Amino acid sequence: MSGLTGTGTLLRLALRRDRVVLPICIVLLVLLAGGSAQAALALYPTPEELTRAAEAVNASPAIVAMFGPISDPTNPGAIASFKTVSMGAIFVALLAYALVRRHTRTEEEAGRTELVGAAVVGRRAPLTAAVVLAIGACVVTSVVVVLSLVGLGLDAPGSIGYGLYWLSAGLAFTGITAIAVQLTQTARGASAWALGALGVAYVLRAIGDSSQGALSWLTWLSPLGWGEKLDIYGANRFVVFLIPLVFTVASVGVAYALRERRDLGAGLVAGRAGPARASASLSSPLALAWRLQRGAFIGWAIAYALLGLVLGSVAHNVGDFVSDPKVEEMLRQLGGSASSLSDVYLGAELNFLAIGAAAYGISAALRLRSEEAEGHSEQVLATRTSRPALLGSHALIALGGSALLLVVTGLGMALSYGRASGGVGATLGRLLPSVLAPIPAVWVCVGLALVVFGALPRLVVLAWAVLAVFVVVGEFGSILKLPQAVIDVSPFVHASVPPGGSVSGVPLAALLLIAAALAAAAVGAFRRRDLTTA
Amino acid sequence: MTLAVEVTDLHKSYGTTVALDGLDLAVETGEIHGFLGPNGAGKSTAIRILLGLLRADSGQATVLGEDPWHDTETLHRRLAYVPGDVSLWPNLTGGEAIDLLGRLRGGLDEKRRADLVARFDLDPTKKGRTYSKGNRQKVALVAAMSADVELLLLDEPTSGLDPLMEAVFRSAVQEFTAGGGTVLLSSHILSEVEALSDRISIIRSGRNVETGAIEAMRGGSMTKIEATTANPVDLHELESQSGVVDVVIEGDRVTCSVATDHLGELLERLGASGIRTLASSPPTLEDLFMRQYRTPEASRS
Ligand SMILES: Nc1ncnc2c1ncn2[C@@H]1O[C@H](COP(=O)(O)OP(=O)(O)OP(=O)(O)O)[C@@H](O)[C@H]1O
Ligand SMILES: [Mg+2]
């Protein structure tokens, strides 16, 4: 294949740029898998206990909907891996997505590909380098995970299956992102396509897994479901791995074909002309911030509404009561002390959705940084717009938008779940505290992002690192057997109310105060520092 | 004469890089002040400090009588800025960007806006990402110049304009100052600075090396003379004339350089030998700047 000249050089450049972040991500993923496997094995010391726990999982449609079923309850690897393998696969998919996007469209948008392309570099080289890098990262992650699990004493074929499970998600989203970055002119647009695909994959798998029978074939359509069909620590049907393999080859092929059909810097959808004059409303920093951010917000809001609708109906499917004490213990571990399985399910999903809302809030807040780095803020601040006004307008969208996402998804859940059982109004009333309670925790995350922007504009990636820490200690802390004091670092821990549970106001008020203090500190820091472009 | 911009002993470092090292700058109200210096001299840094986008480490900066760091918002109603590297919002049209920036500044002059859009031949319906470099600059120029302000801070505003648009720019700047406005113009296009500026400041390594009217600067520099004479001129005699250097005599052809203030004496001497042809090339700005850019220390005295 021609057009590949310079791929090696670009690959080395990419490795150099990612030489810190990439190893950290891989190590964190491996720790997640190994650490929680070790903790699970310690939790159920005898084979009988392991088997009972695994059977309890399979008997809980809610858990199955979230994490997929366990193939062979008698295999210790099954219970040791079932939660991290499916969640981890999403993280691996996100890693692949981030790598491909970062080294293709982001570079192209910044004009650096043009610089590179003028040197002796083939047209296909940037995409190839990014794809090779992403696949390489996923392969390394998987291999190290397999080794660590085998090292813990889990059986080898099942552990290899675990690695293939993660690899299947990573490969698939390498291909999907490779296509997404061809479709739009901006890295932001590419994200919308790729993350949208991830959301669809998650929902397909959740519906497929929770609807025994009728719709279970949907799992086969989801790149996140293929790993599950490997039946790891069970039948180990590795032949299923051919599906992600073929899918990846095909999608990367499509990406190459699309790349051939477009110009450098262009998307497939050409830009159109627009109005010669600004509408009367486009006359304030807030109006500008909204104009810049509304597309992303609307996308997220639609996704959250759909997720709410889908998860609400899945919750209805799984809403049968189980009286097995083992299951109850499991549930307590996973999602608190709610009264019914569907409540546990919705509570756990709301926890995840709150993290997603925080991710939205952080990305909306960090728009401040990209506006600054691209030189737009310089022009805005050369008008009479003050720094607090600039920061405040994006902060308002980040705070308001992230809260609205949770409200929207709660409405969706109440609609679909309530129509099937209990009535929409009553369900909404019962869900509302669970929907609203995480908002202060989300705002703390947004506040932290604002502070990082205000004080350390070149290190805004720290905001994401903090969120990652919150997720690890908050969501996986109890499986990893972390001390409570460490788990308590995550604001989400203090702001999670299971449906039907009671709200305690003090922690929420404290979180609100912290968020307000962070926002104030951010304004103070931003006022004092230099504006730094690129 | 009041000063629109007054800078004394300004210092600014980025980590270990010293960008400004005791900069002085004085821009008189109503003038077009050329701001020159080699790459990395600190021009953009100085302008950003004047805008309150950067904070000086030490020294004084006053813009329109106000402190750019503390009185930022009130000051910004009275000035407009065109950055050297204009980056537009990818999904806003040029027209929208002009209106937005104008409104954020506190309103723009509709008539002037329409006039400038027409003169710059700008298509305001294109999206920001589809403009060429020169057209992006035109958007920023229209936005800044249709504002109702007293001071324009222009950082290499024409580096991407074609000659036709360059001419439009020049006339627009002159109209702006004819209305009483003041302009600080950083530029690498010497002919533009020469054509527009009342006075110029040349900086190098963050320090001022020369300020003044271009004519005055020419005074201290050399004019090149090429002449043919009826009677031969004596080499040694010519060389002994004050202010004359680089004398070459080939038959009846004489070439030499002379300090501009000694030009009269030289012409008298040559006249005595009967001038047949005479060509004098006044020092070009290029010559002037080359000298300042290369050897700042020599010219500081
Ligand atoms: N953000 C920054 N961080 C570190 N160094 C910087 C930064 N911005 C500018 N510099 C340095 O400060 C010095 C002055 O830069 P400045 O951009 O003011 O120069 P300039 O006169 O505008 O140059 P040019 O003619 O190339 O535009 C240079 O040495 C530059 O490398
Ligand atoms: Mg500059």
Please describe the topology of this protein.
The complex is a heterodimer of chains A (534) and B (301).
Chain A: H1 7-17, H2 21-43, H3 47-58, H4 61-67, H5 76-103, H6 105-109, H7 112-118, H8 125-151, H9 156-183, H10 187-210, H11 218-221, H12 242-260, H13 285-317, H14 325-335, H15 341-365, H16 367-373, H17 376-381, H18 387-420, H19 424-436, H20 439-455, H21 461-476, H22 484-487, H23 505-528
Chain B: E1 3-14, E2 17-28, E3 32-36, H1 43-50, E4 58-63, H2 72-76, E5 79-82, H3 94-105, H4 110-119, H5 133-145, E6 151-155, H6 163-178, E7 182-186, H7 190-196, E8 199-204, E9 207-212, H8 214-219, E10 222-229, H9 235-240, E11 244-250, E12 253-259, H10 263-272, E13 275-281, H11 285-294, H12 296-300
Parallel strand pairs in B: 3-7, 3-8, 5-6, 6-7
Antiparallel strand pairs in B: 1-2, 1-4, 8-9, 10-12, 10-13, 11-12
The structure holds adenosine-5'-triphosphate (ATP) and magnesium ion.
Question: What can you tell me about this protein's structure?
Answer:
- The complex is a heterodimer of chains A (534) and B (301).
- By secondary structure, chain A is mainly alpha-helical.
- In chain A, 72% of the residues lie in helices and 0% in strands.
- Chain A has helices at residues 7-17, 21-43, 47-58, 61-67, 76-103, 105-109, 112-118, 125-151, 156-183, 187-210, 218-221, 242-260, 285-317, 325-335, 341-365, 367-373, 376-381, 387-420, 424-436, 439-455, 461-476, 484-487, 505-528.
- In chain A, helix 8 packs antiparallel against helix 9 (156-183) and helix 15 (341-365) runs parallel beside helix 20.
- The model of chain A has no long low-confidence stretch (mean pLDDT 87).
- Chain B has 301 residues and is an alpha/beta fold.
- Helix content of chain B is 36%, strand content 30%.
- Chain B has 12 helices and 13 strands.
- In chain B, strand 11 and strand 12 form a beta hairpin.
- In chain B, helix 4 runs antiparallel to helix 5.
- The radius of gyration of chain B is 23 Å and the shape is elongated.
- Residues 296-301 of chain B have low confidence and may be disordered.
- Chains A and B meet through helix 13 and helix 17 of A and helix 2, strand 5 and helix 3 of B.
- Bound molecules: adenosine-5'-triphosphate and magnesium ion.
- Residues 43-44, 84, 155 of chain B line the site of magnesium ion.
